[in-house]
Write a structure and sequence with these properties.
two-stranded antiparallel sheet; mainly alpha
Length: about 100
Protein backbone atom coordinates (compact mmCIF):
# COMPACT_ATOMS: atom_id res chain seq x y z
CA UNK A 1 0.00 0.00 0.00
CA UNK A 2 1.30 3.41 -0.91
CA UNK A 3 0.77 6.41 1.32
CA UNK A 4 1.29 9.97 0.14
CA UNK A 5 3.73 12.33 1.83
CA UNK A 6 0.82 14.65 2.62
CA UNK A 7 -0.97 11.85 4.51
CA UNK A 8 2.16 11.09 6.52
CA UNK A 9 2.69 14.77 7.37
CA UNK A 10 -0.96 15.11 8.44
CA UNK A 11 -0.74 11.97 10.59
CA UNK A 12 2.43 13.21 12.30
CA UNK A 13 0.76 16.56 12.92
CA UNK A 14 -2.23 14.78 14.53
CA UNK A 15 0.10 12.72 16.73
CA UNK A 16 1.99 15.86 17.70
CA UNK A 17 -1.27 17.49 18.85
CA UNK A 18 -2.20 14.45 20.94
CA UNK A 19 1.23 14.35 22.54
CA UNK A 20 0.69 17.89 23.87
CA UNK A 21 -1.77 16.40 26.41
CA UNK A 22 1.25 14.66 27.95
CA UNK A 23 3.61 17.65 27.63
CA UNK A 24 5.45 15.76 24.90
CA UNK A 25 6.36 16.71 21.37
CA UNK A 26 7.86 15.20 18.25
CA UNK A 27 11.35 16.32 17.32
CA UNK A 28 12.33 16.02 13.70
CA UNK A 29 16.08 15.49 13.52
CA UNK A 30 17.53 12.53 11.61
CA UNK A 31 14.16 10.82 11.91
CA UNK A 32 11.57 11.34 14.58
CA UNK A 33 11.72 11.10 18.36
CA UNK A 34 9.41 11.99 21.21
CA UNK A 35 10.82 14.53 23.62
CA UNK A 36 9.61 15.43 27.10
CA UNK A 37 9.99 14.24 30.66
CA UNK A 38 9.92 10.57 31.59
CA UNK A 39 6.65 10.87 33.54
CA UNK A 40 4.81 12.13 30.46
CA UNK A 41 6.37 9.41 28.32
CA UNK A 42 5.33 6.73 30.80
CA UNK A 43 1.76 8.06 31.00
CA UNK A 44 1.58 8.10 27.21
CA UNK A 45 2.97 4.57 26.96
CA UNK A 46 0.56 3.28 29.62
CA UNK A 47 -2.44 4.68 27.74
CA UNK A 48 -1.12 3.40 24.42
CA UNK A 49 -0.65 -0.09 25.82
CA UNK A 50 -4.06 -0.21 27.51
CA UNK A 51 -5.64 0.76 24.20
CA UNK A 52 -3.68 -1.87 22.26
CA UNK A 53 -3.54 -4.86 24.62
CA UNK A 54 -6.69 -6.29 26.16
CA UNK A 55 -6.75 -6.94 29.90
CA UNK A 56 -7.17 -10.67 29.25
CA UNK A 57 -4.13 -10.75 26.96
CA UNK A 58 -2.07 -8.66 29.35
CA UNK A 59 -2.84 -10.92 32.30
CA UNK A 60 -1.74 -14.00 30.32
CA UNK A 61 1.44 -12.35 29.05
CA UNK A 62 0.25 -12.07 25.45
CA UNK A 63 1.53 -8.64 24.43
CA UNK A 64 0.88 -8.92 20.71
CA UNK A 65 3.37 -6.92 18.67
CA UNK A 66 4.83 -5.27 21.79
CA UNK A 67 7.58 -7.86 22.10
CA UNK A 68 9.75 -5.34 23.94
CA UNK A 69 7.65 -6.12 27.03
CA UNK A 70 9.12 -8.96 29.06
CA UNK A 71 6.66 -11.27 30.82
CA UNK A 72 8.79 -11.52 33.99
CA UNK A 73 9.09 -7.74 34.34
CA UNK A 74 5.40 -7.11 33.70
CA UNK A 75 4.49 -9.86 36.17
CA UNK A 76 6.68 -8.18 38.80
CA UNK A 77 5.11 -4.79 38.03
CA UNK A 78 1.66 -6.37 38.35
CA UNK A 79 2.55 -7.78 41.78
CA UNK A 80 3.76 -4.37 42.94
CA UNK A 81 0.58 -2.65 41.69
CA UNK A 82 -1.67 -5.27 43.30
CA UNK A 83 0.14 -4.89 46.62
CA UNK A 84 -0.45 -1.12 46.53
CA UNK A 85 -4.12 -1.38 45.49
CA UNK A 86 -5.17 -2.33 49.00
CA UNK A 87 -4.62 1.31 49.97
CA UNK A 88 -6.97 2.51 47.21
CA UNK A 89 -10.40 0.92 47.80
CA UNK A 90 -12.12 3.24 45.30
CA UNK A 91 -9.75 2.20 42.50
CA UNK A 92 -11.36 1.35 39.20
CA UNK A 93 -12.06 -2.40 39.04
CA UNK A 94 -10.20 -2.64 35.74
CA UNK A 95 -6.97 -1.69 37.51
CA UNK A 96 -7.33 -4.68 39.81
CA UNK A 97 -7.23 -7.00 36.81
CA UNK A 98 -3.58 -6.15 36.19
Amino acid sequence: TKVSNVTIIQDISDIDKRLLDFDLKIERQKGYRISGDSVGKRRFLAILLTNCISIADFSTGNFGSFDILEADRTRLASQIVNKQLSGFPDMDARMKMF
